[in-house]
Structures are given as structure tokens and as C-alpha cells.
Amino acid sequence: MLPVILRKKEALPLLGIGLLLALLGSLYLWGPWSLKEVTIYHGADEIHLRTRGRTVADALEAAGLALDETYDIFPSPAEPLHKETFVEILAPSEVVVAVDGEELPSLTSGEPVGEILARLGVELGPLDRVEPDLEVFIAESSLVVVTRVQQEEIIEEEPIPYASREKKDPELEKGKRKVVQEGREGIRANTVRLTYEDGVLARRETVATRVVRPPQDKIIAVGTKIVIRTLASPQGPIRYREAIEMEATAYYPGPESTGKWADGFTATGVPAGYGVVAVDPSVIPLGTMLYIPGYGIAEAADVGGAIKGRRIDLCFDTYREAIHFGRRRVTVYVLE
Description:
Strand content: over 45%
Largest sheet: 6 strands, mixed, barrel
Order of helices and strands: HEEHEEEEEHEEEEEEEEEEEHEEEEHE
Number of helices: 5
Number of strands: 23
Number of domains: 4
Helix content: 10-25%
């Protein structure tokens, strides 16, 4: 097969097409229609320019803006320019991070708090508290506070008071009391959680409790057994079932002692006179026969507003006798 020989007059058209394309490309790159309208917002400044640059970085260079990585630029410097492009530049703001007793300054232009702390090498513990939150974006001068939080749990013991209770004892003489079981405090163990903030105790709370030893009640036996005894008296032998130490006073049923209530009768309707006494019915029931040394046989037949507890008021036939008796401690014998 014979080779094909390309004549020069056939190659010229191809060469012309290449030159034409190169010329058109040059005209596109450098012609007036290759200019881009760019508006740059930089703080309070608004910069307008026309450039043949291809990227945002070219436009910034054309505007004479030399910016480092602390500035946030939208769109990014690598983005291509369009026929009309708007560029926003956020200047870095100063942020102070207060942590571990120090203040660490830094510059930011819209980072979240978490990234700022990471950049400064601040490591957080699982309980540490950060204000503002880690997800908050910082776009202006701010203070970020890191509070170191630590917790520990301790066991504290506290006493549990014991109660006292009485029980009737038919084998113990009435009026007598005997401790049959001593009381003992119990022990409660509390688990207390201590929360420290920057090394200072900020909160304590009881998170669990258990009884290590329950309390033991104090038990007192109260006698109910009636024991009849004999007492020698000027009136002869006195048989009694209980002796009560009491504070005795005296009164005269006339107006000198009882004022406007002096009608001569007791609360039970018995005429007031020698041998009638006033008592507290919760201590000595009305109608009970008594013997009081130095006074004699008496009946509990009256009450009085001031006669409460272990007090007894003895009635005399004259005001002078009542005054002479006065006030004294006596043993009151409850007759059988």
C-alpha cells in the first residue's frame, strides 16, 4: 500500500483553526466580558471591585486584603468567582477561657466553644461544666468559664434514737417501776455524695441509707399488784394498798379561801369540812378513802383548779387551822 502524503495546502486549515481557538480564549480571558463583579463585606467596610481573577482568593488579593486563618471567609477562598459574587469576612474576636485558675486568651471568628477549648488544649472531665455550652458558636468577644467538677462518696454513721415503753407487770407491786430492758441506740449508715467545684465543696446529698443496727427499746415494767400493808397510827392500825408522796395544802370552805364559790359543798355534793380533801381524779379517784399523817382519815371528795398531779388540798373547819397547816410534803396512804 502506498503512503499518504499530506500536502502543505491541506495542513493550513487545521493550523488556522488552532490559532483561532487560542485567540478566542485569550479574548475571553482578557476581554471586558471576563470581568466579575465582587462585593466584599469586611466589618463596617463594603468593598466593590471588578476583577478577572478566578477564585475568591484572587478577589481578596486584588482588594489588598491579606488575611490569616483566624478570619472566617464565606465563600471560602478556594471557591470560584461568578459573574456577581458577594464575600463576607468575619474578623476574629478575642475569647478568654477561664480554667484551672488561669485565663487563656484566644482569637476566634465563629467557632463553637468545643473547638476553641480543643485548640487551646483544654481537656474536660466527664463532670466538668462549661459556660457557654460546647455547641455555642462564639462570634464576638466573650468569656468562657470551665468549672472543674469532681465527686466522691463517703459513708457517715448517725445514731437512731430508741423509744421508751411501759408494760404492766402483775408480779410487781403497784406504784413501783422497774427497767427490764435498757434502751440502745441504733446505727444508720448514710452514703453521702460530695460535689466539689474547682476544689470547693459545693453540694452534699444523701444518695442511700441503710440501718446497720436497729434501735432497742427501753422497757419499763409498771407494777399492778396490790399489796396490803399495815401502818400504826393514832387511830389504830391502818391497812393500806398504796403510799403516794404528795404536796399538801390546806383550805377553809368559807369565803376567806374559796371566795365567791363558798357554798359549803364539794364537787361531789358532800358538805365541805374536816376530813374532806380535794385531789386530781386522774391520780386518786373520787370516793377513795385516804390516811394522811398529821391530818387523819379523809375522803377524796373534791377537786380544785390548782390541784393537778400529785397535789392534795386538805379541808379544815376554821380559816386559822388552814393557815397554820400551810404547805408541806406528806405521804398519802390509799386505804384498802
